[in-house]
Design goal:
Oligomer: homodimer
Radius of gyration of chain A: 18 Å
Strand content of chain A: 25-35%
Order of helices and strands of chain A: EEEHEHEEEEHEHHEHHEEEHHHH
Strand order of the largest sheet of chain A: 5-4-1-8-9-10-11-12-13
Largest sheet of chain A: 9 strands, mixed
C-alpha cells in the first residue's frame, strides 16, 4: 500500500570518533525512504535548493522511491546540518544549522500523492505537519515524530496533531517532557490519552517500548551491532522500516506492529554501522532478514 | 535435581521512599531459597547467631527448603545490614554493616549435601566460595555471584573460582570492572575467556544479558512492575528462580537457560514489589506462570 514520507533533505557534515563525513546527503525523509524502500514503494515529499549537489534519482536508483514530490527551488539553498558525536555516541552536539529552504513555505503535496494510505510526518513544526496531512484524502495509518522544541513551544498545534495521528514515534526524553512523567510506562499512558492509538518510545541503547491504547505493550532491546560509526538517521531509518513493513502488509494490528518494530530495530542497526547512507546503501533485503532472525533468537524464549 | 545455596542470612533494616522495614529477615541465601523453592527442593547452607529472632523452619514452612545446613552459633551474633534507597531505587547506600558471624569461619557442608548437583555460591570472599565448592563431590552446574571489592582485591582467588564455575551472575558495573571493558558484549567475552561457560549480566531497569562461550547471546528487558517498594534481594531472587528452574529441568542448554532467565526476571519482579520477603511469600507458582506468559507476550515477536 502507498507510503508517503514528508521530512527534511539536507547536506550534513558529521564528526564521530570514527572520522568526519563532509557534505554528505542526509535528512529525515532520505533515511526514511531508503529504509522503507526495502519493504514497499515510497513517495517522497521534500524540498531542496539549487545548490544541492546530489542527484536523488541516482541516490535511489533501483529502489521504488517516487520523487514526484521533490521540489527544487532555484532561488533557495538546501538545509545544512553540522554535528559532532561524543565518545559514547549517545550525546550529539549541533555545530551549525542552516535551515535555508526549510524556513520557507513547505512543499505542496502533488495530486498523485493525495491517495496515500500510510503517511509518516517526520519532525517539523506541528502546524506544518497538520497542513501536509490535510492534503491527504483518506490516510489509513499516520505516524509522526516530534522534538523538544515543539513540545516546549505553544502546545496547541501539537495537541491537534496528536488527535489526528495513529502513532507517535519519539525518544524517551521527549516522551517524559510531553507527558510530564518520569516512568516511561506512565508517560506512554498519558500520551495515549492525548490521542494516538500507539506510542513508540525509542530508548537508544536500551531499545524501544511500544504501548497501545488497548493496553498491549511490547519491549525490544536495541540490536547491538559490533561497531557504531555514525548514529545520524537511526531514528528515521527505524521509522522507515517500521512503516515500510506495515504498508507492505497493509495491516496495523499489534502483532504486526511488534514485527514492524523489530524490522525498524534491525534496519537502524545497519544504518548506524557506516557514515551517511552507506550503511543502508550496501545491504539487501536478505541481509535484513538474516539479522531479523538473529534478533528474534536473541530476544525470544 | 538437588540445588544447594550458600550465602548470607541477615537481619536487615531497609529504608525506601515507601517506608522503613526494621529488623526484617534478609540475606542472599534467604531470598535465593524462597525464589528457588517455587521450582525445586533447596538445600540451604548458612550460619546465624543466637540473637536471630527468626525461626527459619517457620519462614520456609510449606516449602521444600532443607535446613540441615543451617548452623546456629551460640556465642555469635547474626549478620546485620542497614541500607537506604534513593528516589529512583537504583542507588543504595549502606548505613551500617555488622558482619558478625560472617567474619568467622564459614559453615561446613553437611555430608547430606555432598552430592548436590546444582550449586549457587552467593557473593562472599572467593576463597570462601572455593572452600565451600571443594566440599561438593560432583556438581553438575555451579553458578556464582561476586562484587566490586573481590574484583578489586587480590585477584588470584577470583581467577581460580572463575575457572571452576559454569556461570557467573553479576551486575553491569561489576562486569565492566572485571573485564576492563565498557561495552557489555565485549565485557562478557572477556569474562568468558576467564573460565565460566555462561555469563549473565544484570542491568537493573535495563534487564539482563546472557552470553555463552559458543557465541549464543540473549537479551531480556526487565519486567516493569507497577510499583517497586524494596529492591533488596532482587538479584538473589533472580538467581534463585533461574537456578531453581534449571535444577527442576535437570538441563542447562542455552534454550533452557533463556527460559530460566525469564523466570528469574519474573520472580525478581515479585520480590521487589514489597518489603523483605513479603513479595515472594504472598505468591504462588500460578502467579509466576501468569506473569511469565505476560513477559513472553511483552518481548517475543
Amino acid at each position: 500500500m502507498s507510503l508517503l514520507v514528508t521530512g527534511s533533505i539536507g547536506i550534513d557534515t558529521v564528526t564521530t570518533p570514527y572520522g568526519v563525513s563532509e557534505n554528505c546527503l542526509g535528512g529525515s525523509s532520505i533515511y526514511f525512504s531508503m529504509a522503507a524502500s526495502f519493504f514497499t514503494p515510497v513517495r517522497l515529499l521534500g524540498v531542496i535548493g539549487s545548490d544541492c549537489p546530489f542527484d536523488l534519482a541516482e541516490v535511489f536508483a533501483g529502489r521504488d522511491v517516487d520523487l514526484t514530490g521533490l521540489e527544487v527551488r532555484e532561488q533557495s539553498k538546501t538545509f545544512r546540518w553540522k554535528g559532532t558525536y561524543g565518545d559514547n555516541m549517545d550525546q550529539r552536539q549541533t555545530d551549525c544549522l542552516e535551515l535555508n529552504v526549510l524556513a520557507e513555505a513547505p512543499p505542496t503535496v502533488p495530486p498523485e500523492y493525495g491517495d496515500s494510505k500510510f503517511v509518516f510526518l517526520a519532525n517539523t513544526a506541528p502546524a506544518l505537519q497538520l497542513k501536509l496531512l490535510g492534503q491527504i484524502e483518506k490516510p489509513v495509518f499516520v505516524a509522526a515524530d516530534t522534538m523538544d522544541c515543539w513540545i516546549k513551544g505553544p502546545p496547541d498545534d501539537l495537541k491537534v496533531l496528536l488527535k489526528r495521528i495513529d502513532a507517535l514515534i519519539i525518544n524517551e526524553d521527549e516522551a517524559r517532557l510531553l507527558s510530564n512523567q518520569s516512568n516511561l510506562l506512565r508517560a506512554a499512558d498519558v500520551i495515549l490519552d492525548m490521542g494516538p492509538g500507539v506510542v513508540i518510545v525509542k530508548k537508544g541503547e536500551s531499545g524501544s517500548l511500544m504501548c497501545e491504547k488497548g493496553g498491549e505493550k511490547f519491549l525490544l532491546p536495541a540490536f547491538r551491532a559490533a561497531e557504531v560509526k555514525d548514529p545520524t538517521g537511526a531514528g528515521d531509518s527505524f521509522a522507515g522500516a517500521l512503516m515500510g513493513y506495515l504498508a507492505q502488509n497493509e495491516k496495523t494490528d499489534f502483532d504486526l506492529l511488534k514485527t514492524a518494530l523489530a524490522y525498524g530495530t534491525v534496519v537502524a542497526s545497519f544504518a548506524i554501522a557506516d557514515f551517511s547512507l552507506k550503511g543502508l546503501a550496501s545491504i539487501t533485503r536478505d541481509d535484513i532478514e538474516s539479522r531479523f532472525e538473529i534478533l528474534r533468537k536473541l530476544t525470544n524464549f
